[in-house]
Amino acid sequence: MGTRIPGKKGMGLSPDHPKGLGGWLALIQIGLYVTFIRSFILVYDFFTNTLGSEGWYALTSPASADYHASWKLVLIFEVSANIILLSASVYLLTLLYNKRAVFPRWLIFYYIIGLLLQLVIIVLVAGIPQSSELAASGNLLQNVARGLVNGLIWTAYILRSKRVRNTFVN
Q1: pTM confidence score
Q2: How high is the pLDDT of residue 120?
């Protein structure tokens, strides 16, 4: 029902529903921080270790035995996807801590985009004959399955949670 609390206009009724960034929202926060750290490390590694390295030239130089014209596109797309996820996680954390009403919609959009980016990477990698086994390997498909289950669970929570409805009102 509710608890009676004093207010500016006398006693008011406060709902006994959860509110704030606690509960299951703490796991969403942790997930966003993990994505931020993971994406930052991958982007940093790309610019410091991959770009300009022997591995880069082996995959992107026509004189190399491992060369395929699509490798450069795949590598650039993957680092771009990580930059997008890095930026999105910062934006979502900002919305989360400001308790913005648009946070739930943007979080659902974030899960969809993350899943689509993973699928595009698999399709791009599958188009390279030397790496078709990599695209069909359990690791990439496992990432997609994990992203799908993660997105479905948290989308259902975001859409049904009273805490989310009571917290994100600004």
Answers
A1: 0.82
A2: 93
